[in-house]
Design brief:
7 helices, Rossmann fold, about 30% helix, single chain
């Protein structure tokens, strides 16, 4: 379980984009959290989905609700599916670790994507979150429940996940101008996700 496995994530999702899209639940077990996030947004505001996958179900939830969705993912095959499904939204092939869109958003999401980064890359992401967050923007991401690396499998290949300690996330959020609104670990309603919902203070 080494950080070198993280370098294979982009290729893994590109190779298995069809499988991921086919297996991704559309039942929205995360609906309650999406609604909590949405409650912090202005009506019709802008949402940046970081690691948007194939656009369903999360980006689609916001697109259908009338938000201006901008999705980014490192997999061209995933982004191709997004563009076909939601041609009125904006989609870019991009690595979140070097994201620099030159604009800010009312809400930023990194659901089941941010936790594929190494812990050092996760620390660096908070400056990227800050740079893309409008005043009072909402930020929601999923992590692990404690510091460490965990390996899963997908498409018969190793799948890397890592997490910082909760206190580290709290410190990084505070240092970058975000206040924690809600936080839960191993949430049974979402299949065991650990979720952070924050809001930019300025």
């Amino acid at each position: 379980m080494t950080d070198s496995e993280a370098d294979r994530i982009i290729g893994l999702y590109e190779r298995h984009a069809h499988l991921w899209d086919a297996e991704r639940s559309r039942n929205l077990p995360e609906r309650a959290w999406l609604q909590r996030f949405e409650a912090l947004l202005p009506k019709g505001g802008s949402v940046l989905d970081i690691g948007c996958g194939a656009g369903e179900p999360i980006a689609g939830y916001f697109a259908r609700a009338g938000y201006q969705v901008h999705g980014v993912d490192s997999s061209p095959a995933m982004i191709e599916r997004c563009r076909a499904r939601f041609p009125d939204s904006t989609w870019d092939v991009a690595d979140m670790r070097t994201l620099s869109l030159g604009r800010t958003f009312d809400g930023l999401l990194a659901w089941d994507s941010f936790f594929h980064l190494t812990r050092d890359d996760q620390r660096r992401m908070f400056a990227i979150f800050r740079a893309h967050a409008a005043p009072h923007a909402a930020l929601m991401f999923t992590s692990g429940p404690s510091d460490g690396v965990a390996m899963g499998t997908f498409g018969g290949e190793p799948l890397y996940h890592s997490s910082l300690a909760p206190d580290a996330y709290r410190a990084l959020l505070a240092d970058n101008g975000f206040e924690v609104v809600a936080n839960v670990f191993d949430d049974p309603q979402t299949g065991g996700h650990s979720i952070w919902l924050a809001r930019k203070s300025l």
